[in-house]
Design a protein that fits this description.
By secondary structure, the chain is mostly helical. 71% of the residues lie in helices and 0% in strands.
């Protein structure tokens, strides 16, 4: 079991909308300006843009589901809805990993990221054809899907045979942090991202996989009817504190993505005050222990090294 929670006070009005708007600024700058700043094919900037947008929409969903007016006035709303979407924070962690890993070498890693995805899609079609081949409707679907996928591959400048031969595949976050470099060492990026396999962060993976250790954290919300009647109000009281903790972590992951992008591209503020706003968001989220740990391990020094001054 993880260490006991220390009660913290987090004011969402200091970061909720501010962080969303800042993330959208970075997403648009990646879409419009990054292609000229990257020595990489245009699709690399496109993939980074989509990863940021996925994280922003996930962040927005958490607030949408848990808005005061929804929780207090919607008769169909349930505490369980807040809990069942928590594994989406794990998806945000994966987006952070993909962004940081691509930015280590955009031309090489950005190409690897996309080619690996294409290879997996082709493998799926091979498996579907093997299982359902001989059925006219399935044959037509597989053939049409393969033609469209092959066209997309060629449009990106790849050869289908090169995609099929690609080895190894783009690693998952879990595999990436465990892969040893020559000499049995790990890189600074691996060490930082490995933080997401420790402490409270590991809970999201357990929840996503329906593992028992994940159920130990969430089961009470799924079966409130088995609790004694007198204990049920306590669940409602606890829910608000639990919600604040998880939303704070989600905000921190989105802020890490924003910081990684600005550290790499050093986008001009153009009146947007990007650097100042990044520092303001770190200050607002610092009460969250897991976010402060990430800041101390990587982002305080990264902001300093890249001259991202407030």
């Amino acid at each position: 079991m993880s260490a006991p929670e220390k009660e913290i006070h987090l004011d969402a009005s200091t970061f909720q909308h501010q962080l969303e708007k800042l993330a959208e600024v970075l997403a648009q700058k990646v879409r419009r300006e990054a292609p000229k700043l990257l020595s990489a094919p245009p699709f690399v900037a496109a993939d980074l843009h989509v990863l940021v947008r996925q994280s922003v929409y996930t962040y927005n969903l958490l607030f949408y589901l848990n808005a005061d007016e929804r929780r207090e006035t919607d008769c169909y709303w349930r505490n369980t809805y807040s809990i069942v979407v928590l594994p989406l924070i794990r998806n945000m962690m994966d987006c952070l990993y993909n962004v940081t890993a691509i930015l280590q070498d955009p031309r090489t890693n950005g190409t690897w990221f996309r080619m690996s995805g294409y290879k997996k899609l082709l493998t799926v079609l091979d498996e579907e054809e093997k299982r359902y081949g001989g059925q006219p409707k399935w044959d037509e679907w597989v053939r049409d899907s393969r033609d469209k996928l092959s066209l997309a591959i060629r449009t990106d400048g790849f050869k289908v045979q090169d995609v099929i031969a690609l080895k190894p595949s783009w690693p998952t976050l879990g595999k990436f942090v465990l892969d040893k470099q020559p000499g049995g060492v790990t890189t600074p990026l691996q060490d930082v991202l490995k933080t997401f396999t420790f402490g409270k962060w590991r809970e999201y993976s357990a929840m996503a996989h329906g593992a028992f250790e994940g159920l130990m954290l969430t089961a009470m919300y799924y079966v409130p009817d088995v609790l004694p009647q007198e204990d049920r109000p306590k669940m409602d009281e606890q829910h608000t504190r639990v919600l604040a903790m998880h939303i704070g972590r989600a905000a921190g992951v989105l802020l890490c993505i924003i910081t990684e992008l600005q550290a790499y591209f050093r986008f001009d503020d153009d009146g947007a005050r990007i650097n100042n706003r990044i520092h303001a968001m770190w200050n607002a989220l610092m009460p969250v222990p897991e976010i402060k740990e990430m800041y101390d391990e990587r982002y305080a020094q990264l902001l300093k090294d890249k001259h991202i001054d407030p």
